[in-house]
Automatic annotation (TrEMBL):
HTH tetR-type domain mapped to chain residues: 1-47
Chain residues forming the annotated DNA-binding region: 10-29
Classification via SUPFAM superfamilies: Homeodomain-like, Tetracyclin repressor-like, C-terminal domain
Signal peptide segment: none
Species name: uncultured Rubrobacteraceae bacterium
Keywords for this protein: DNA-binding
Entry keyword DNA-binding: yes
GO molecular function per UniProt: DNA-binding transcription factor activity; transcription cis-regulatory region binding
Protein name (record): HTH tetR-type domain-containing protein
Length: 180
């Protein structure tokens, strides 16, 4: 997908590269969309996603969970950026690629919603936010586009991006941190 910027990844090409029939690929994955989703998830496995999420998953408080996820995501994006760009480039014209992108961003959104929910349960969600609105804004703040704008276009080091996004997220969503 990276080589072709997400464009024109065909089941026939995958089958040829794997040394199996096209039917075997369909039998295993069911559809091109399922293949694309599996490819992205395999990339996460190869990059050790579960291990990288350990600190986030172990965090019990909403604020700690927020900071751990922003740190994880800000440091993970550079490693998945190539495939993310490929998916973004092709998703408007390719349903399978759109499914893979939606699957991935759905997982990120679920984490954002979980974080906001924990802040709410802790009594720490800043006033004025509904759970869904806060999750929507956090998800948008952590978008690939935001990362690209600050790190690639403005030249921020990844560490600065992580620190500033943690600070911004605390100020926006954690009660008592507003305007701090």
């Amino acid at each position: 997908m990276e080589e072709r910027s997400g464009q024109g990844v065909r089941m026939r090409d995958v089958a040829g590269a794997a040394g199996v029939s096209r039917q075997a690929v369909y039998d295993h994955f069911g559809s091109r969309a399922d293949l694309m989703v599996a490819t992205v998830r395999h990339g996460d496995e190869v990059l050790g996603l579960d291990g990288r999420l350990r600190h986030y998953r172990a965090a019990t408080g909403g604020t700690e969970r927020l900071e751990a996820f922003v740190e994880f995501w800000g440091n993970y994006v550079p490693e998945i950026h190539g495939i993310a760009r490929a998916l973004l480039a092709a998703r408007e014209t390719d349903e399978a690629v759109a499914a893979a992108w939606d699957d991935r961003m759905g997982v990120v959104y679920e984490a954002c919603h979980d974080i906001v929910g924990r802040l709410h349960r802790d009594g720490a969600l800043a006033s004025g936010w509904s759970l869904d609105e806060a999750a929507d804004v956090l998800w948008t703040m952590l978008s690939i586009h935001s990362w690209e704008s600050l790190v690639l276009e403005r030249g921020w080091p990844v560490g600065r991006y992580v620190g500033r996004m943690q600070e911004l997220a605390r100020r926006a969503f954690v009660r008592g941190s507003e305007g701090a």
